[in-house]
Design brief:
Layout (H helix, E strand, L loop, with lengths): L1 H22 L6 H5 L9 H25 L3 H24 L3 H21 L1 H4 L7 H20 L1
Helix pairs in contact: 1-3, 1-4, 4-5, 5-7
């Protein structure tokens, strides 16, 4: 189990690193600074702390899900889709400034992670709650992206 957790930690933090690379100076860029942002937008440092906690919890969730799964190929595909959606939001939003496409991507990611949470409850019980921080954060992030889309 420890080996699986480490593998998912590496994969998850690789996604964060790639996404961070594409964010670049996004949060401090003139474009982002000039946007009308939601009043509930957290300070910048919260994003790094939240994503660190989320990806640790998600690695434990995935390692457990993988260990009990009958159809590992399906889980690998869903995990891969999640991984790609998580990464591509950054260049779409921060580099291309495509707020609507970013909203579609993050909404898709939120729905997918929500499925991880709600569809695994019977199989995994309280261990499913390890994906709850990811889902809750995505709900917040989706609302932030949506606010920017509708108010700029």
């Amino acid at each position: 189990m420890l080996k699986r957790i480490l593998i998912f930690l590496v994969i998850n933090f690789t996604a964060l690193a790639i996404g961070g690379f594409y964010t670049g100076s996004g949060v401090s860029s003139n474009w982002y600074e000039s946007l009308n942002k939601a009043p509930w937008t957290p300070p910048g440092w919260v994003f790094g702390a939240a994503w660190t906690f989320i990806m640790i919890c998600f690695a434990f969730f995935m390692a457990h899900w993988w260990s009990i799964a009958e159809h590992k190929k399906g889980i690998a595909i869903l995990f891969g889709i999640q991984w790609v959606l998580n990464i591509i939001w950054n260049p779409i939003f921060f580099s291309a400034h495509e707020v609507l496409i970013g909203l579609l991507v993050i909404t898709s990611l939120t729905l997918l992670v929500g499925n991880f949470l709600f569809l695994n409850w019977k199989k995994m019980g309280v261990k499913t709650l390890l994906v709850a921080p990811y889902f809750i954060w995505l709900l917040i992030a989706t609302s932030l992206n949506g606010y920017i889309f509708f108010n700029n």
